[in-house]
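Homework help board

Subject: predicted structure for assignment chain

Our instructor gave us this sequence and asked us to write out the predicted structure in token form, then describe one feature. I got the tokens but I'm not sure how to describe them. Can anyone check?
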Amino acid sequence: MVELLSPAGNLEKLKIAFAYGADAVYGGVSHFSLRIRSGKEFTYETFQEGIDYAHKLGKKVYVTINGFPFNSQLELYRKHMEKMASMGPDAFIIATPGLVKMAKEVAPEIPIHLSTQANVMNLLDAEFYYNLGVRRIIAAREISLKDIEAIKAALPELELEVFVHGSMCFAYSGRCLISSLQSGRVPNRGSCANDCRFPYVLYAENPETGVTFKLEEEEGVGTYIMNAKDMNLASHIDEILKSGAVDSLKIEGRTKSPYYVAVTAYAYRRAIDDYYAGKFNAQNYQKELHTTKHRGFTDAYLIHRPFEREGTQSLESSISEGTYQVQALVDEAGLAFLVKDKVYEGDEMEILSPEPIKEKVKNERGEIYQKEDGKWYLKMHLLETPKGKCYECIHSGNENPILLPAVLPPFTFLRKKVKE
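My token output:
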């Protein structure tokens, strides 16, 4: 069965990914990873805790060491690899041939996965890295399924991983200097400022007269000229799995919200399981994925080549929107929730749970019930903390846990629909 691989931006997101169906997660520590912000959310101690947690569940953790080092950093990378290897991860994710060589010397027992930053799109490059000792290649986002099939046919022992969901890079993944030029933040060193998401105004200059004038746009065309839509291949999971060429389906998003991690793992877990059970239904997964914040969706390049289609860019806005607002997150004990948005007494909130809700509940704190649409809901009659403090309304930012009317599965989300 194909592996479902989710992002782990911190320890909480790691646990949420596993709760909602991921088989493995990827994440990193410090600036050696290509997501500096999420790397800072892990310490060596919490990352070790995450690895131990995963292994108790029979699941895996892959370490991102996929930066592009300068000479002055090589010894730092070596020490970091030694430190990470001592934790017993299931693979290193590496982007450069030199660091592949270093990893083979430092930790020959740790499998190496080649980062998508290496932009492998053909058999020749895949064969080169395979002969170098790479166990798995995370293909470039721009590769086609036909090319994946060709690589698998020639190198059946090489594992192949593809992105199926998440943000798209304006350039070949990470090979962009716009952020470096404008803000000094280097994408291939983990600090991309996402300058492709900004609106731009275009000007033209006449070099003979020195006159500069603004180029006026057609109404509705937009100024987000480099803003890519988000990848969403949920409707094509059946085609991908039918090929037999893909070993792992990867979801992008280490810096995204816990809710995003939960919903994407939940939707793609269902898509995978439904495919193997012979009841694949793309509409079910898309409905759930559209509840997350996104910039519009595209099925990108795996199924369709870039020159065969348009619609991969969102030109009018880079604002992320979804159909639901998260109100609260149930704690790891399942006894209380933490507020993420304003919650009033009497509010009805839909339940998104990693496990099926089995029983209706009604007491002085609130009630849990199922509607005709088959979904489960929670209505709170009393907003009370474990210390006995009560609220009529509790706002986001308030860190007091609110007691539930009954135990719910850990990491259950409570949400409200904001639009169709």
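Reply (TA_rk): Your tokens look well-formed. For the description, you could write something like this. The chain has a mean pLDDT of 89. That's the kind of observation they're looking for.
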